[in-house]
Amino acid sequence: MQKLTRNALTTSRKMGKLKNIVRHISTGIINLLYPANCFSCRSEINKPGLCPQCINSLKPVKAPFCSCCGQPCEGEISGQFHCSNCSGQAVDFEFAIAAYLARGCLREMIHDFKYHRRIAMCKTLAKLAENALDDPRIGGGKGWLLVPVPLHRRRKRERGYNQATEIATAISRRRNLPICRALQRIRYTSSQAQLLRSERLGNLSGAFEMRPSPAVRAAIKGSQILLIDDIFTTGATANACARVLRSAGQAEKVVVATVARG
Ligand SMILES: [Zn+2]
Ligand SMILES: [Zn+2]
User: Number of structural domains, the chain?
Assistant: First the structure.
């Protein structure tokens, strides 16, 4: 990695630490003023998020799962396998792994974090996402560079923040991993949720590009990237991002890690 990149990453880490301190102080004050309740069952807890019982009720993604998209599969399968969606499909990421299935309170939590500005949920979601980093193929994240899936400027203005960047920043802080906002979304596309799988793929062509910065280019070239997002559904968004990181960015490999799987 070039000196320029290291400097850029160090400066952004220092800024991150400062923001972290400010955030800690303000969170402490908020916690004193408003005691927290579990997001799901409303029982009293000391930090915003989920109580231990509600965390235990979440459904972790457990083997056997597709070695490409991480889709869990019922039954006894040992060794690597591809699910019916992935068989014969060429994807630009190595594999995708989610920590949990997007069901029940986790699904609602992600929805509120994304659409109702429940920023306090960020730390809990980042903590949950870290279980995906413990996949033996990622080995905790050491040696990987975190890249959040970007939002279009207009969408970010509407939402107030990019949920993927918030989660990636929290993981970066907790695990001391480098982060690089390498991508930008240049097309404002209609909401993916309304579209069919084939339409989603078409809808995203040309939607992303690398940020035009020499420091970003140097950081991505030859790196192992962990592309971070809140939820993995069809994989169309992750694949479009992975394609740009690998072709324009010349990343060595891209792995997709998300909190949940739709
Ligand atoms: Zn609860
Ligand atoms: Zn699959």
Answer: 1
